[in-house]
Amino acid sequence: MTHEHLARRFLLTSLPVMILLAVGLGWWVTASIERQVIRNSAADLALYVQSFLSGSLQGLAERNRLNPGEIARVRRLFTNTPLGHRVRSLKIWKEGGVVVYATDPSLIGRRFPPTAHLRQAWKGTVGASLDELHAVENAPEQALGLPLLEVYSPVRFTGSDRVISVAEFYQDARPLEAELRATRLTTWLVVGGATVMAFGLLFLIVLQGERVIRQQRREMNDQVAQLSGLLQQNERLGVRLREAARRSATVNERQLRRVSAELHDGPAQTMSLALLRLEAILDSTHGCPAADGRPRVEEAVAEVRGALEHSLTEVRQISKGLALPELGGLAVSEVLSRAISAHEQRTGQQVEISTAGPVHAGVGTPISLTLYRVVQEALMNVFKHAGDASAAIGVILDGETLKVTIRDDGPGFVAAEAEARTDRLGLHGLRERVEALGGTFELETVLGVGTSIRAVLPAQTDGREMPDG
Predict the structure, then answer these.
(1) Which of 20, 32, 169, 307 is deepest in the core (most CB within 10 A)?
(2) Please, what is the average pLDDT of the chain?
(3) pTM: predicted TM-score of the whole model, two decimal places
(4) Residue 441 domain-assigned?
């Protein structure tokens, strides 16, 4: 059951609790009211009875029984008088549970176990109970067949707090019970009404909260749907961007090959032809006497020849640097081998290499081209700027990423200054190549310690081992 049924859950879980609370509260309130009504009625009755009875019982301060005259006065008080009509039965107790007077003469002089209310009265407190006639001495009252209010009232010696006896009397409780029934009914109506109102208000609050939650959930679902659409759109754009970067890398390499071919087939061929023509001119004039400024012609021709040879060398070096070997379908290990071999042949510098993972598998042409360029440019930087420092390459292929690290123990440099220079495109070019394919490029260098270049490229192998070469 979700929060969409919050009101139903509240109804099912809180309704029994509210009913139990209402019953408990109603019982406690009615019991408290009954106790208070009985206590107040008993106190009023005790005060009323004592105002008539106390004077006739003062002799009990010195004796343990009433004399005939005192008994006669007590009987007159309860015979055909308003007090007698109100009090249906009377007992006078001395300490130890001895009855010294009773409406039923058969109880006079008998001893009964003191009840809790009797003990309470001997301590000076009025005790009372409603229709609890269970003791042995209550047989005459039980025979009346009426609900009775039983009151235990301490009788004190005049002018002191000394309790000399306890008067136990019984009042017809039918009016009191009617009053209590009305009070119970009123109390239960109030408690029930208050409970219903409180529960109704809480239910309305919960119902409103459920509606708000539903509205917020709908709005949240709409926002999630919009965000999901945007994420999918961004993912598609990212895929297109990475694909465009791969195509761009491929196109750049093709462009470099085209430029290399044009340099080789165009200017280089023209310069070669010019050199041949100059050599032919020099051969045709060789051995002839120096006349008409021929030595000067030979000198000029020699200068042209030197310039052309120098230009041809430069063009061939540029062409050789621009052209990459065919790397399509080669394994990672073969790409590394070709890049390192070309560097060692060009510079004579030895390079250490270590590999880990399935390096005999291919990773795709764009990644292979970038790997070749990173190794080529990094090793050339070591040769140019670190002199005879040793260089080492580490390659790790884990099936999802290709990690390449080139380290040297050269003099190092200030990385911030090198990154800030815009006339040197080596580091910038490497970073752009790597990041265009979704990889990361890091440079660490310390003066006097050396330099480390780390490139991490996304690479997924096809699981096949490629032939070396």
Answers:
(1) 169
(2) 79
(3) 0.41
(4) yes
